[in-house]
Write a structure and sequence with these properties.
The protein has one domain. It has 366 residues and is mostly helical. It is globular, with a radius of gyration of 22 Å. The chain is built from 16 helices and no strands.
């Protein structure tokens, strides 16, 4: 391995294409934000949570699988000795079993759209979220011991080859951070520029630890990306300079389409490489990057944004029906039911399209 290939693989430049590390950040952030949304929910909100969450996740996945199938039909995936192992690894014929596995997620994913593997973990976490909350409320361990246990569980999962043990605790770090957010904020508000610089550099080094020439192959080093991901999430939540970057127009727009881009990027890259019949990263990138971005914007507008609206509507509908059932038994007044519906409709109409609000900005966690 020489030149730019070595630099991209064995230096901090690896973060330009660090898919695994990005997934760790996403898992921590998912746990953090999702727990904030439901941590003080009543039983009606919890009942509504499941249909709302599953619609939010599965409808874009279904559409992404259809998109990947269409690309396979347009650009057949045929292997070639001149292609890289990555491309040849996905040069498999379209099969119904692969499509069904990709649609269900929990049955395992395949080479039709490889990034869907992480959505399997996301679905499992979403289904098990109440158990995370139950563990938090038991207060068995101090927060820092809980943090260490979760990281150690990830390491153990990697050693024994367990999918659940490797990835589900990463969400737990986000849940734990959200649960102790007031304490963290109290400490973080006293940090100055030097402290935040050190924290940012530490997060960067931990995320990249497994890809330096001195740590390749070390099983313990591989897990350092997990605390690095947690530290990076805290950095962007509490560091004033990082908050300004994260709330900039460019960052907000990229954040809006990030889930769509994640679902579509690999089928676009593979189709581009096969169509051009080249292994040249730069030749593929010149076409695949803008194509993936354009496809993601269209996918967001046509699929993801309507899905967010629909999933929230389903959640509100379930809560209102449950409240109405209580009303019929004399447990809540009709005026409360009507007022709740009017307030919700007014809130959505005021904030729809405003990226600073949950109704206007629609990330995966919406």
């Amino acid at each position: 391995m020489q030149g730019w290939a070595w630099a991209l693989s064995r230096t901090p430049l690896h973060l330009l294409w660090a898919g695994g590390e990005a997934v760790s950040v996403f898992f921590v952030l998912s746990g953090y934000v999702l727990w904030l949304q439901v941590s003080h929910a009543d039983w009606r909100r919890w009942v509504a949570y499941y249909p709302q969450r599953l619609i939010r996740l599965y409808v874009p996945v279904f559409a992404a699988v259809v998109f990947a199938c269409a690309l396979v039909v347009l650009v057949p995936r045929r292997g070639d000795p001149t292609f890289s192992g990555v491309i040849n690894g996905q040069a498999v014929p379209l099969a119904l079993t692969d499509v069904l596995h990709s649609l269900t997620l929990l049955a395992g994913t395949n080479q039709l759209n490889p990034p869907l593997w992480s959505l399997r973990a996301e679905v499992l976490f979403s289904l098990l979220l109440p158990l995370y909350g139950l563990a938090l409320r038991q207060r068995w361990l101090p927060w820092w011991v809980s943090f260490a246990v979760l990281v150690a569980t990830v390491e153990a999962g990697k050693i024994v080859g367990s999918f659940s043990l490797t990835y589900l605790p990463v969400f737990g770090l986000g849940v734990l951070m959200a649960h102790h957010r007031a304490r963290i904020q109290l400490v973080a508000q006293d940090f100055g520029a030097r402290a935040w610089t050190l924290i940012g550099l530490t997060a960067f080094c931990l995320l990249n630890a497994a890809w330096t020439p001195w740590t390749i192959g070390s099983p313990l080093i591989v897990t350092l990306d997990v605390p690095g991901a947690a530290l990076l999430v805290l950095f962007f939540i509490h560091c004033p300079a990082a908050v300004r970057v994260g709330t900039s127009w460019v960052a907000q727009q990229l954040g809006r389409i990030s889930f769509s881009l994640y679902l579509l990027h690999e089928p676009v890259i593979v189709a581009t490489a096969l169509a051009l019949h080249t292994n040249n990263v730069f030749h593929v990138g010149v076409i695949a990057v803008p194509a993936a971005l354009a496809a993601s914007v269209l996918f967001f507008l046509a699929v993801e944004a309507p899905t967010v609206v629909a999933s929230r509507s389903v959640g509100k509908f379930v809560q209102r029906r449950l409240r109405a059932d209580q009303t019929s038994r004399g447990q809540v007044s009709w005026s409360e039911l009507v007022a709740d519906g009017v307030a919700d409709a007014s809130h959505r109409s005021r904030h729809l399209g405003d990226p600073s609000t949950p109704e206007g900005n629609t990330p995966l966690l919406g």
